[in-house]
Amino acid sequence: MTRVFEKQDKIIIGVIEDDIRISKCEHVIPEDGTDIIIHGNLEIKGDVIFEGTLRVQGITGKAKHVIVEGDLFVENSCSIDKCALEVHGHAEAIKFKIGSSLVVDRDLKCSTARAGSKIVIAGNAQADSLAAGGSIAIKGSTDVDRMSVGGSVRLHGKVNMERLSVGGSGEVRTGRIGKVSIGGSFKSIAAVEVEEISVGGSVRVGENSKIESIDVGGSFKSEGGLTFGTIDVGGSVKVSGDATGESIDVGGKLVVDGNLTMTGSLEVGGKVDVGADLNVDRKISVGGTLIVGGTINAARMAVGGSIEASYIRVSDLFRIGKKGSVVGFVEAGDIVIRERAEAESLYGVRIRLEEKSRVKNVYGKNIYIERDARVMGQIIYADDIVIEEGARISSEPLKVEELPPPDECKK
User: Fold this and answer.
1) Which of 84, 171, 211, 256 could cross-link to 194 by cystine, CB 3.0-4.6 Å?
2) Who contacts 411 (Cβ-Cβ below 8 Å, separation ≥6)?
3) Which residues does the chain have with pLDDT short of 70?
4) 291 to each of 217, 276, 377, how far by Cα in Å?
5) What is the 8-class DSSP label of residue 373?
6) How confident is the model at residue 167, as a pLDDT?
């Protein structure tokens, strides 16, 4: 049985055991106390204000604006077409499906909530899934498994989420997110922990964030120290502190104000600027310029343009490209100074100076100096040396039984 209320300015409801339909009634008032209790289902036709807390088994209907001035507790689902649903207290249901907007002044708790335009929660949100065509804003904490938004997201409290998908921009304060996928930009005010982030535009994260995988089409910036797994950025990366991770691949520019420590490889198409020490377990490959305020340690290293560091230590191969330059002492297994490149002091097992290169000092077990190359200072070798005709050296090479330690040669 369905009880019907039609075209009334005010109706008074206490406890109803049956299903009811409210059609074109402006106000629903509790009979006693503050609660309106419906043990059946509620069908709404037209705008209505519930002047208290509403407890109901389920809600369906069609309206432009529905207001609940207290809490809203729905045992099953709440589905209202074309509606802007406004709840002045808490809102709970298994499922919310709202045609326009869902606005809750306190906490939201549900399995799923979907709104055509926006979801705004002034308190905390707990759900398996939240989705909105336009925007989602949550002032309190967010404990949601999945969130999908066509436009923008603003999460002002602590976040615990497995997946965030946004077409436009996303902003969070702090917390943990499993996977972030955003078409535009992403920003965290404080530290976040993210397993995987994929953003088409720009990313900015707070100090001491931890991100396993970073894939950004534009720019990435950390406002302080950063712990990462892999970074793949088409434009630029800036870390305002120390950075520790596995590997970096940047198309444009990389700037780290502190130390950069990596277990994998570093590949940058343009410029690298590290304020303190650079430690890379595998390979460093830089297309343009590498400037390091402290020392460099790597297994292999190739730079197309110029290098500047206080000390460069490479266990395997060090190579500077054609017309490149090296400022700083280089210690490596194999050293290749390409044509027309310049370097200061070199210390290695095998050293080759190509045509028209210029070097200050050379200390190596085996040295090969091509024609028109120039050594302006000392040449000390232990095993073998080849000097092509036309090469220019300032002093006779000195053969020794064993090379002096690198620290003595650096003085």
Assistant:
1) 211
2) none
3) none
4) 24, 10, 24
5) -
6) 94
The answer to whether residue 200 is domain-embedded is: no
Q: Which residue has the tokens 């609660």?
A: 35
Angle, alpha carbons 257-261-263 (nearest 5°): 150
Range of the domain at 2: 1-106
Q: Tell me if 281 sits within 8 A of 296, measured CB to CB.
A: no
CB 248 within 8 A of CB 269: no
Is 76 among the domain residues? yes
Average pLDDT, the chain: 95
Helix (H), strand (E) at residue 366:
strand 358-369
Q: pLDDT tens for residues 67-122?
A: 999 999 999 999 999 999 999 999 999 999 999 999 999 999 999 999 999 999 99
138, 160 in Cβ contact below 8 A? no
For residues 140, 142, 147, 148, the Cα torsion angle rounded to the nearest 10 degrees is: 10
Q: Which of 227, 260, 231 is nearest to 247 (CA)?
A: 231
**What is the Cα–Cα distance from 390 to 110, expressed in whole angstroms?**
82
Q: Are 219 and 237 in contact (CB under 8 A)?
A: yes
Q: What does the alpha-carbon distance between residue 242 and residue 66 come to, in Å, rounded to a whole number?
A: 52
Cα(340)–Cα(53) distance, integer angstroms? 82
Q: Match 């106390």 to its residue by tokens.
A: 33
| C-alpha to C-alpha distances, 39 to 42, 84, 114, nearest whole angstrom | 9, 24, 24
The answer to whether residue 18 sits within a structural domain is yes
Q: Give the chain's domain count.
A: 1
**By the 8 A CB rule, do 221 and 203 touch?**
yes
Residue 305 DSSP one-character state? S
Residue at 8 is within a domain: yes
Q: Which amino acid is at 38?
A: I
Helix (H) or strand (E) holding 223: none
Cα dihedral value 181, 185, 189, 195, nearest 10: 20
Structure tokens at 380: 């000390």
